[in-house]
């Protein structure tokens, strides 16, 4: 089997003395959609932030495309092709939609094709094109989430980590955003990690599932083979 695009080996992450992630290991194969599932406080966001260089790992290793990226500065990790859409769809509310998107194109290899990538984002999310000159603060929660996804795409990533993008959104909007993510994966081969609390949605979208419980990855495998029951048991630790 070929080397995974992302390899996390025994990563530990702390807040002060509190260990939020004990020893997490997982693989993400190239071109796949992979779900990271877990309840509130399981350590999913901390692990994503650690992979993306926003939080420091206190032990363990993160390899991306075979290279050790553990604890590199976040912007260097983005430049290598790994982007995070953090929880809460943060965008700069006093900037226009288009300026928010263009901010994503800071990596050198992304700068050259800004116009084409912007067109691609507007094709995926036509409402953002309509509102491109509006301040992001005037957008709905779902539209802000689209801006956050679009900004990550503007970095020209090879892998995107989506941290609970469904949080606080209406079911119809969630359905649309997930359909768009699947389309991006199918059309471009972009590798995707989806952090989710909703096991059903995670299994439906991610071909591979990793379940986190109390700061550890406790179950990993093909989502269909594992099945909802086994994934739920691991999720609740029963
Ligand atoms: P959620 O689904 O609610 O986002 P999660 O699985 O992403 O949860 P984390 O947010 O990574 O979990 O939190 C893991 C643990 O670390 C929890 O016990 C949480 O209370 C703790 N934690 C998270 N952020 C901080 C922080 N800034 N300072 C101290 N402890 C924190």
Helices, strands, pairings?
Elements: E1 6-15, E2 18-28, E3 33-38, H1 44-51, E4 59-64, E5 67-68, H2 74-79, E6 82-85, H3 97-103, H4 108-111, H5 114-124, H6 126-130, H7 141-154, E7 159-163, H8 171-188, E8 191-196, H9 199-205, E9 208-213, E10 216-222, H10 223-236
Parallel strand pairs: 3-8, 3-9, 6-7, 7-8
Antiparallel strand pairs: 1-2, 1-4, 4-5, 9-10
Adenosine-5'-triphosphate binds at residues 15, 18, 20, 38, 40-46, 87, 197.
Provide structural commentary:
With 238 residues, the chain is of the alpha/beta class. Helix content is 39%, strand content 26%. The protein has a six-stranded mixed sheet with strand order 6-7-8-3-9-10, with helices on both faces. Residues 15, 18, 20, 38, 40-46, 87, 197 line the site of adenosine-5'-triphosphate. The site of adenosine-5'-triphosphate (ATP) has 13 residues, from strand 2 and helix 1.
């Amino acid at each position: 089997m070929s080397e995974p695009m992302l390899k996390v080996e025994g990563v530990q992450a702390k807040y002060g003395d509190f260990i939020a992630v004990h020893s997490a290991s997982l693989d993400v194969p190239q071109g796949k959609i992979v779900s990271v599932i877990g309840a509130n406080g399981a350590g999913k966001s901390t692990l994503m932030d650690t992979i993306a260089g926003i939080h420091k790992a206190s032990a363990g290793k993160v390899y991306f495309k075979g290279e050790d990226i553990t604890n590199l500065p976040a912007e260097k990790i983005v430049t290598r092709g790994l982007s995070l859409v953090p929880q809460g769809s943060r965008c700069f509310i006093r900037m226009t939609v288009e300026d928010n998107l263009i901010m994503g194109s800071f990596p050198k290899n992304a700068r050259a094709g800004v116009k084409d990538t912007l067109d691609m984002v507007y094709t995926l999310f036509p409402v953002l094109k309509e509102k491109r000159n509006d301040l992001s603060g005037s957008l709905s929660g779902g539209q802000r989430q689209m801006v956050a996804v679009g900004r990550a795409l503007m970095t020209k990533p090879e892998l995107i980590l989506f941290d609970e993008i469904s949080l606080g959104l209406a079911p119809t909007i969630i359905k649309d955003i997930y359909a768009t993510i699947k389309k991006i994966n199918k059309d471009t081969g972009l590798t995707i990690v989806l952090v989710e609390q909703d096991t059903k949605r995670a299994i439906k979208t991610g071909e591979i599932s990793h379940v986190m419980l109390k700061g550890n990855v406790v179950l990993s495998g093909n989502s269909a083979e594992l099945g909802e029951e086994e994934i739920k048991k691991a999720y609740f630790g029963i």
